[in-house]
Design goal:
about 450 residues; alpha/beta; Aspartate Aminotransferase, domain 1; seven-stranded mixed beta sheet; four-stranded antiparallel beta sheet; about 40% helix; decarboxylase; transaminase activity; transferase
């Protein structure tokens, strides 16, 4: 064994204590450090060391060279994208995921895939889905949407008497995928799956909304020869708008289509009694995307995909090798996603669900919603800003009241970045900004700091 590796093995408990100390220091500093550090000149890449100094030296180098350049994305005022943090229990689960280093795809190994199935069952219950839905962990919303649409592709083949999994996507002929305000990952998935970005047809939305117009969707379905795929949205990125899932589901009485629902973070509305109606109809989906490193507050990368057609899922992703587990009626996880290997992502989710239960996660959801409303109200009161859409759930979509150019908004973001991080968008043809609340640490005090920083930045650029 390499001399330095052997030395680290002998001191492993001490090294883990040092790492724990570094982690505790980083988390304790979240409130005080810049949310996004100021951009400096790019670092020159160091050469790979030939003879290095072991874990101690690596930890020292990381803390000196890289840690100061990392954003405080685990903290309460990182409001860009839709980024959660990691609850204490999720952090513990993620550390133990690395400790046990399971590839939980096969029944030939230990109980990892059983733990994943238990966690999927808890999530199914959390979101109000029936037992008709089976689920699997994947890396994020893009992979969840891709997996769901891969199953939809096979369903189209079933309707047409071919198997794209065997014969290729070309066997389907032209395909139409209908959606009102699809996330960018949908077009990416269609490209990956060989269906093509041009198969995506955007259907008109309701006036002033991002929710699809059900009447327009029915007209589009009537104009579609043969079976189609509909991608519904349960929480759009810009304004957290929800399609009427029940109305869309009712269209299947007259039209033949697969219903895939992108509920990456909107599914969590089901946890709040005040907002659960927004998620009505989720269970009718043929496939469903939920991203867990958003509002469940588990570390990247973690998402889940659900489907009612596990048989088609296995037809797409089955993997034949003597060293893998069987396909059968209850296929091993290796037969259900694009990955032959994945870490035991479910453990962090299992930990946080086991530690805090439905009530604990409901509190996070409802507190974040209240924080979004408070920021929306503060920005409405500030003459420098205007809201581009109502605050429906946990995202505030806003812009400058005067001259909202991309350049001025970028300057505002940069001026406020030490205190609050928001991301750019375009809504209704107007350049704007999004503040998304999904972190378990965020409080009303953070909202006040964020509003103050945004207001000061607006005056600075003026």
């Amino acid at each position: 064994m390499d001399r330095m590796l052997a030395a680290d093995l002998a001191r492993l408990p001490e090294l883990l204590d040092a790492t724990r100390g570094a982690a505790a220091d980083a988390l304790a500093a979240l409130d005080a450090r810049p949310v996004v550090p100021p951009a400096g000149k790019p670092h020159d890449c160091e050469p790979l060391p030939e003879h290095a100094g072991g874990t101690d030296a690596a930890l020292t180098a990381f803390r000196a060279r890289w840690e100061p350049r990392l954003s405080a994305s685990a903290g309460p005022r990182y409001l860009g994208f839709v980024t959660g943090g990691a609850t204490p229990a999720a952090l513990a689960g993620d550390w133990l995921t690395a400790v046990h280093d399971q590839n939980s795809n096969s029944a030939l190994d230990g109980g990892g895939q059983d733990l994943e199935r238990e966690t999927v069952g808890w999530l199914r219950e959390l979101f109000g889905l029936s037992a008709a839905h089976s689920g699997s962990f994947v890396s994020g919303a893009t992979m969840s949407n891709t997996t769901g649409l891969a199953i939809a592709r096979e369903w189209l083949g079933e309707r047409l008497g071919v198997s794209p999994a065997d014969d290729g996507a070309g066997a389907l002929g032209p395909v139409r995928v209908l959606s009102g305000a699809p996330h960018s990952s949908i077009a990416k998935a269609l490209s990956v799956l060989g269906l093509g970005r041009n198969s995506l047809v955007q259907v008109p939305t309701l006036p002033g909304r991002e929710a699809v117009d059900p009447a327009a969707l029915e007209r589009a379905l009537a104009d579609t020869p043969g079976p189609a795929v509909v991608v519904a949205n349960a929480g759009t990125v810009n304004t957290v708008d929800f399609d009427d899932l029940r109305a869309i589901g009712a269209l299947r009485e007259r039209h033949d289509f697969w219903l895939h629902t992108d509920a990456a973070f909107g599914a969590f509305a089901a946890l709040s009694p005040e907002h659960a109606h927004l998620a009505d109809g989720l269970d009718a989906s043929d496939s469903l995307c939920v991203d867990l490193h958003k509002w469940l507050n588990v570390p990247y990368d973690s998402a889940v995909q659900f489907t009612r057609r596990r048989d088609l899922q296995a037809r797409v992703f089955q993997n034949s090798a003597a060293y893998l587990g069987p396909l059968g009626d209850h296929p091993d996880l290796v037969h259900l996603t694009p990955e032959n290997s994945h870490r035991l992502r479910a453990l962090a989710a299992w930990f946080t669900l086991r530690a805090y239960g439905r009530q604990g996660h409901r509190e996070i959801v409802e507190r974040d919603i209240a924080c979004a409303r408070a920021l929306g109200a503060a920005l409405e009161e500030d003459p420098a800003f205007t809201l581009l859409a109502p605050v429906r759930l946990n995202v505030v979509c806003f812009t400058l009241a005067e001259a909202p150019t991309p350049e001025r908004l970028a300057a505002l973001r940069e001026a406020a970045a030490a205190e609050v991080f928001v991301t750019p968008t375009v809504y209704g043809g107007t350049a704007g900004l999004r503040a998304a609340f999904s972190n378990w640490r965020t409080t009303q005090a953070d909202v006040r700091r964020a509003a103050k920083a945004l207001g000061a930045a607006a005056r600075e650029i003026a």
